[in-house]
Amino acid sequence: MDIYNEDGFSIARMRIEESDNNYNYIVWCNKTKECAVIDPIDPISILNFIRDNGLMVKYVINTHCHPDHISGNDPILKVSLSLISKALVHPLGVELIGTRYETVEEGDTISVGDIEIKVIHTPGHCPEHISLIVGNNIFVGDTVFVGGCGNIKHRGVVEDLYKSLSKVRELPDDYRMFVGHDYAETNLKFALDLDPNNEAAKTKLDEIEEAISEGKDIPPSTLGEEKKYNPFMRYDVSEVVDELKGRNPELKSDPGSVFKELRELRDDWTS
Ligand SMILES: [Zn+2]
Questions:
Q1: Which range marks the domain in which residue 46 is found?
Q2: pLDDT for 188-212, tens place per residue?
Q3: CA distances from 133 to 17, 137, 141, 166, 171 (A)
Q4: CB 3.0 to 4.6 Å from 128: which of 20, 92, 134, 140, for a disulfide?
Q5: 36-74 pLDDT, tens per residue?
Q6: pLDDT tens for each residue of 118-131
Q7: Rounded to the nearest whole angstrom, what is the distance from the C-alpha of residue 142 to the centroid of ligand 1?
Q8: Ligand 1 mean position to 105 CA, how many Å?
């Protein structure tokens, strides 16, 4: 687990290896000790952390409603001391989660103590997917990964995913990106298979392999870094487009078609 101390708030990140390298997050206001839990799959570790640090759960926030992002909701809400604690989810996901929820949509702000968490709708991996912005941090769930993006195998729509990646790409470079799973190593190998001379991808892969060899969790990236090596944010860069057109001469060059081709190639790719 690692902790990130920001101005007035803190973030804990836990990687849950036994699932699918899911990340669970706790964000709390340093002054009031109110917290939000994001995408819980390991309620015991989360509840232990909350107890040890004297935190109070105000919300569980689900970036989306795939089972590995919501399974910890009820255990956390049941033992929470606060009767007002609830799950927050996009309206398109309400049928998939249990009790005690409220809905949040694009442009909403969630207050946790003195923290303001901004909601943006980023569908594509699934229709109800939201991302959360807190200070210079963005929680992107399964919309973007280090070097990659979410798949569209479970209620996904590739055209929506393309629009969401385009939307995230417009955000500031200095945003630190917290993702839903660690798939960085395979993603960066795929990125380098398409774009072998990409120095930023090589540097990032070296950094990640070093962390893995030392038994450490990989550090979060920034949106600025992703824009340099993540093919799903580089659907209009000549190196990527030319490579894909070389592989498939029928491919249209518009960004949406390139993005769709990238997603299909990644689905079939093994290192
Ligand atoms: Zn998912």
A1: 2-268
A2: 999 999 999 999 999 999 999 999 9
A3: 25, 6, 12, 16, 10
A4: 92
A5: 999 999 999 999 999 999 999 999 999 999 999 999 999
A6: 999 999 999 999 99
A7: 5
A8: 18
Residue 168 predicted with pLDDT over 90: yes
Distance of CA 249 to the CA centre of its chain: 33
Q: How far is the CA of 121 from the centre of ligand 1 (A)?
A: 15
Given a cut of 80, whether residue 80 has pLDDT beyond it is: no
Quote the radius of gyration of the chain (alpha carbons, Å).
Answer: 18
Cα 145–Cα 151–Cα 153 angle in degrees, nearest 5? 155
How many A from CA of 66 to the centre of ligand 1?
Answer: 5
Segment 168-187 mean pLDDT: 97
Distance 151 CA to ligand 1 centre (A): 8
Distance 31 CA to ligand 1 centre (A): 33
Distance 248 CA to ligand 1 centre (A): 29
Q: How far is the CA of 44 from the centre of ligand 1 (A)?
A: 21
197 CA → ligand 1 middle, Å: 31
* Domain harbouring 191, CATH code: 3.60.15.10
Nearest to 162 by CA among 224, 236, 270: 236
263 Cα to the center of ligand 1, angstroms: 15
Centre of ligand 1 to C-alpha 13, Å, is: 18
Domain count, the chain: 1
pTM of the model: 0.97
